[in-house]
Amino acid sequence: MKITKTEIKIRDLVQGYSDDGEGGVYGYGGRLCIRPAYQREFVYKDKQRDQVIYSIQHQWPLGLIYWAKTGDDTYEVLDGQQRIISICQYLNKDYSINCRFFHNLTEEEKEQLLDYTIDVRICEGTEKEKLEWFRIINVAGAVLTEQELLNAAYTGKWLADAKTY
Asked: What does the alpha-carbon distance between residue 50 and residue 90 come to, in Å, rounded to a whole number?
């Protein structure tokens, strides 16, 4: 698998953010599928979600995020979905931290968040390599269950329906 290092500003990441439930979660101008079929639903608790924004506000690193290249200029998230959705939801005014929504921040605070740079690794390879890499990078953090690992290999409409139950 070929892995390329790049940096993405939050202002670019959240551009065109949309969450249409089963229709998909997208960002990066519609070129990034944030929650591909093999990814689990958003599972961060409020404290974890808030810590992502707190880290950005303090200019602390969020850790590597991995995207898989799916086309000439399109991608899907292999690792980092929880962090990306936390960021997008905050900037989309879906939640506040200490009673402060993004739109309530000073212009300086907004610019600091928007200019924050995320370390992204773009992965290119076969479908098998992509799913194996997904399995490997998900052994730390919020641990995937065996069922969630199986869901990575077997996707489809039935899986989306099953997740609702």
From this structure: 9
- Burial of residue 24 (CB within 10 Å: 0-12, 13-18, 19+) is middle
Q: What is the pLDDT of residues 55-73, one digit of tens each?
A: 999 999 999 999 999 999 9
CB 114 within 8 A of CB 10: yes
DSSP for 76-135, written as a single string: EEEE-HHHHHHHHHHHTTS--BTTB-GGGS-HHHHHHHHH-EEEEEEEE--HHHHHHHHH
β-partners of residue 79 are: 66
Give residue 138's region: left, alpha or beta (phi > 0; psi -120 to 50).
alpha
Of 70, 90, 89, 68, whose CA–CA distance to 79 is shortest? 68
How many residues does this entry show for the chain? 165
Q: For 42-55, how does the pLDDT look when each residue is reduced to its tens digit (9 = 90+)?
A: 788 999 999 999 99
